Amino acid sequence: MSMKELRGRAIMFLVLTIVIVTVFWTMAPSYISQRNVLAILRQMSVNGIASIGLTFVIVLRRFDLSLAGVASFAAMTLGAILAATNNLFLALLGSICVGGLCGLLSGILITRFKLPDVVTTIGVGSIATGMAFIYGVSIFSSHFFSSGILRINDSMLWIAPLPVVILAITAAVAYYLLHMSRYGQSFYAVGESPVTARLSGVTIGTYIAAGFAICGAAVGAAIILNVAAVGAASVNAGSRVLLPAYTAVYLGAALFGGATIPATLAGAFLMALLLNGFSILSMPYFYSDAIVSFILIMAIAVFRPEILNLIHERLRPRARDKSLLER
C-alpha cells in the first residue's frame, strides 16, 4: 500500500471518528467528559484484546464462533479460582489457559480431523458454555475485593488506565509476531495460499492450531478486564464479545485494506465509541446489536477481495484518463 493510499484511509478513519463523536456529543454532552473518555478506553481494551486474537484466525481465512462460550468459561474459571484460593496470579493464569486450551482444541479438531471451522467452533463454544455452568450461574465473593483484581480496572499508569496499557502491550507483541517476524509471514501465507505455503515448507496444521490457540488465549485475557470492571464472574460474561470482536476486525480491514493489528485497533476504537454512545443514550441492546450487525455486514462486503478488486478496477481507468488529460 502506497503512502498516498494509506494517508487517504487514515483521513477516512479520522472523518468517521469525528462524525461519531459529534453525533453522540450533540445528543449527550457528557459523552466527551474526561470520565467517559476513560470509560471508552477501558471498553476498547476488552474488545481490542479479543479482536487482536481473532485477527490471527481471520488472517488464516478461518472463523472462530466459540468466542462467547470460551469467554464465559474463562470468566467462571477465574471467579472460581479466586473464590477458592484468593490467588490472583493463579486466577489470571487459569483464565488465559482455559481460553488457550479451548482454542487449541478447535484448532486440533479442524486440522487433525479435517472438520469445518464454523461447525467445530460452534460446538466447542457450546461445550465451553456448558462447562461454565458447572461453577454456577455467577460467582462473587469478598476475594474480589481483597485479591486486587478490581485494581486492574481502576488503576492508572501515568495518565492511561491500566487496561489500556495492557492492550498496548498485547498489541505490540501481536504486531511484532504477525508483521515483523517470519512466523507472521507464514500466517498470511497459509491464509492466502495453503498449497504454496506447504510447498515452501510451512506446517499448515501447526499454524492453524496456533492461530486458534492465540485467539482463545486472547479471549481469556480480555474477559479478565471485563470481570475486573464488573466485580463478579457470570456465565453471561461472554455474550458481548463475539459481535464486537468480529465487527472491529472487519471494520478495520475494510478501512485499511486488510486484516492487520493496527487496522484491528482502529476498528476496536470505533466500536468502543459506538457502544459507549449507545450505552449513554440508554439504547436497548437489541437496537445497538442491530446497528453493529449492519456495520459488520457492510464491513464484510467491502473487505471481500472481489469487491476490493472491482473498486480498484473502476478507479484505474479514471486515473489513467486523468493522467492523459493532464498531458
UniProtKB/TrEMBL annotation:
List the CDD domains: TM_PBP1_transp_AraH_like
Write out the transmembrane intervals: 12-32, 38-60, 67-84, 90-110, 122-145, 157-178, 199-228, 248-273, 285-303
In its UniProt record, a GO molecular function of this protein is: transmembrane transporter activity
Keywords (A to Z) from UniProt:
Cell membrane, Membrane, Transmembrane, Transmembrane helix
Which Pfam families does this entry report, sorted A to Z?
BPD_transp_2
Its membrane topology is listed as:
Multi-pass membrane protein
Example GO CC term: the record gives: plasma membrane
The question of whether Ubl conjugation is a record keyword is answered with no
> Does the keyword field hold Calcium?
no
Q: Where in or outside the cell?
A: Cell membrane
Name the record gives this protein: ABC transporter permease
Q: In which organism is this protein found?
A: Rhizobium lusitanum
